[in-house]
Amino acid sequence: MIGSSNGRRRQERAFALRIAPGVLIAAGTDFGGGSTRANQLAWKVECLVDAGLDPLEALAAASWRGGSVSGDPDAGVVREGGPADFILVHGDPLSDPTALSRVWRVAWAD
């Protein structure tokens, strides 16, 4: 598991306070803003699920919803004619969010 148990508890408490009907949740890495922790986004998805968010909603927060909040209509979306950057992981993140930390392959659009 990435991060200290104290850091994970703080993150889960922060997420739990924001998880309410109608509240838009988006997750990001803050990469380049001082954090160099690998797999930080996967860890945040795990924290969202641990805080009570449905796994599908946690994945949405880290993918298309995060992209829509950033203002980039292509970010987090796989569609015909669009960019095709994606990852393949070992396991099913809908039943086991830790699968996001087990990256098997990364594919980039040419």
SS elements, strand count: 2
Listing every helix as H and every strand as E from the N terminus to the C terminus, the arrangement reads: HHHHEE
Derived structural class: mainly alpha
Tertiary shape: globular
Strand content: 5-15%
Describe this structure in words.
This protein is mostly helical and about 110 residues long. It contains four helices and two strands, in the order H-H-H-H-E-E. It has helices at about 5-20, 40-50, 55-60, 65-70, and strands at about 85-90, 105. The protein has a two-stranded antiparallel ribbon. Helix 2 runs antiparallel to helix 3 and helix 3 (about 55-60) runs parallel beside helix 4 (about 65-70). The termini are far apart. The mean pLDDT is about 75.
Q: Mind sketching the topology for me?
A:
Elements (H helix, E strand, L loop, with lengths): L4 H14 L21 H11 L4 H8 L1 H7 L15 E4 L13 E5 L3
Antiparallel strand pairs: 1-2
Helix pairs in contact: 1-2, 2-3, 3-4
Task: Give a summary of the structure in a few sentences.
This protein has four helices and two strands. The chain has 110 residues and is mostly helical.
Features:
110 residues; mainly alpha; two-stranded antiparallel ribbon; 4 helices; globular
